[in-house]
Amino acid sequence: MNKGSLKSTIAVSLTNYLDAGAIVAGASGLTLWQNYLGLTEMHLGWLNFISANCLGAAIGAIIGGFLADRYGRKFIYTYNLLVYMLGVLTIMCSVNFPMLLAGFLITGISVGIGVPASWTYISESSETNNRGRNICISQMSWGFGPMIILLLGMFFAPDGYLFGWVEKIAHAIGGEGISAEAVNVFSSRIVFFSLLVVAFVAWNLQRKLEESNEWKASKATSANSKDDNRKSGLAQAFSVLLTNGTAIKTVCFLAIIYLTWNMVASVLGFFQPHIYETAGGVSNEISNWMNCIQWAIIVAVTLITSTFIDKVNHMMIYILGLLFAISAWVIVVTVGVNGMAGLWLFTILWGIEGGLSVQIFYALWGSELFPTKFRAGAQGLMFFIVRGLSAVWGLTFTYIYGENGEGFTIAAFCMIALLLISLIVGVAGSPKTRGKSLAQITKERYGDNF
Q1: What percent of the chain is modeled with pLDDT above 90?
Q2: Which stretch of 78-82, 228-232, 434-438, 443-447 has the lowest confidence by average pLDDT?
Q3: Beta carbons of 150 and 22 less than 8 angstroms apart
Q4: Does residue 218 register a pLDDT over 80?
Q5: How far apart are CA 381 and CA 19, in angstroms?
Q6: Average model confidence (pLDDT) for the chain?
Q7: Does an H or E element contain 92, and which?
Q8: Residue 314: which residues within 8 A CB-CB, separation 6 or more?
Q9: Which residue, of 94, 204, 349, 433, has the fewest CB within 10 Å?
């Protein structure tokens, strides 16, 4: 991987840090916001529903994917993180539920806009034998985000090492008479402020990136094609996606493996600290430490995966990751998570799964299996489907789970079933793209017309 490729991969990967960071920042401070605003489990479900975890990202993805194909990948990197900063700032300043909800939605939309362009740009700027490794670097950023945010959440949390600073800031802004709940929630506000700072740094790096050469070449070809000039923008992209047999099959395959996995991962991404505290019966501090260690495991395993993903059979890695995932949920229905042994087994197994996860292959295959002219748009469409349905599942999960985790075992069986579907469909449709250029893959799948 040359220096330029590494630099652009790191800059673009900050989008993933901000995506996962926004989800976990909301999750780690969920109980604090609940106490401050008097929220119910249904309120929490709605926050998850419209957040970067689900609907907000779904809306953003279908917009951002097609904008990236129409106006270029650089267009997204020039403006999108300004929207993210607005959303995070709204959350930081929230004093009621509608304001908090709006902040989660704006942030989620920005996350969705950035993700398809991110994976697309990384693949298009990577060398043939380094695409998998670069995607893993991107995925590591997804692990670093939650790990760092959870650490900050613990340090600034009530009874945390730095909570004295939180109290001073809270009283300086809100006065000496503000409630204990209002003081406590300032720890979450500060965590979101850290995302604001990273987003500003990332925006300055990303807006200086060069446009993708693949996109520029595709745009030049389209400009000389009478067929492509008949339609433009969303209409053209949707027309091709919905009429080309290969594209339709690919969308269905990737959407199924990612949806079934993401319905499990999205619940954990937003609710895991809350689940550990209610179903597991541990304190907020212990819950956050366990989650932080889990993300450290994810980062470490992803780093290891990056060293061999471009050299070995992708299907074997895919199967191994899902076997760890299924094993984690089997622990829930056998050992249980109301004791430390069960909680630690689940934490470690799901951490290993995260470093071999379906998302790595979804990002890799999603950026390989479509032509340049609608590569980001196809990913945006799939992300819209997946995150949108995951949003509905998030609301459903709150009903199954109950107020105090009484339905967690039933939910675990649902998770196992979803992961089995992802395993079976993934094995049946696993493509053989390793070691091939994007142009070669496109020609093999679509012929010379793209």
Answers
A1: 34
A2: 228-232
A3: no
A4: no
A5: 18
A6: 85
A7: helix 73-92
A8: 132, 361, 364, 430, 433, 434
A9: 204
Contacts with 262 (C-beta within 8 Å, 6 or more apart), sequence order: 358, 359, 386, 387, 390
Q: Please give the model's pTM, rounded to 2 decimal places.
A: 0.83
Residue 402: name the closest of 89, 41, 1, 34 by CA: 41
Report whether pLDDT(276) > 50.
Answer: yes
Tokens standing for residue 62: 């279908």
Q: How far apart, in whole angstroms, are the C-alpha atoms of residue 249 and residue 287?
A: 41
Cα gap 304→136, rounded to integer Å = 9
What letters, b where the CB count within 10 A reaches 16 and e where it falls short, cover 111-145? bbbbbbbbbbbbbbbbeeebbbbbbbbbbbbbbbb
Between residues 128 and 427, the one the model is more confident about: 427
Distances (CA, A) of 433 to 311, 363, 445: 12, 13, 11
Average the pLDDT over 110-119 and give the result: 87
Closest by CA position to 118, among listed 241, 251, 9: 9
**Residue 82, token pair as written in the block:** 């300004």
Cβ contacts of residue 444 below 8 Å, gap of 6+? 436
Q: Which helix (H) or strand (E) holds 228?
A: helix 226-229
Confidence of residue 392 (pLDDT cuts 50, 70, 90): confident
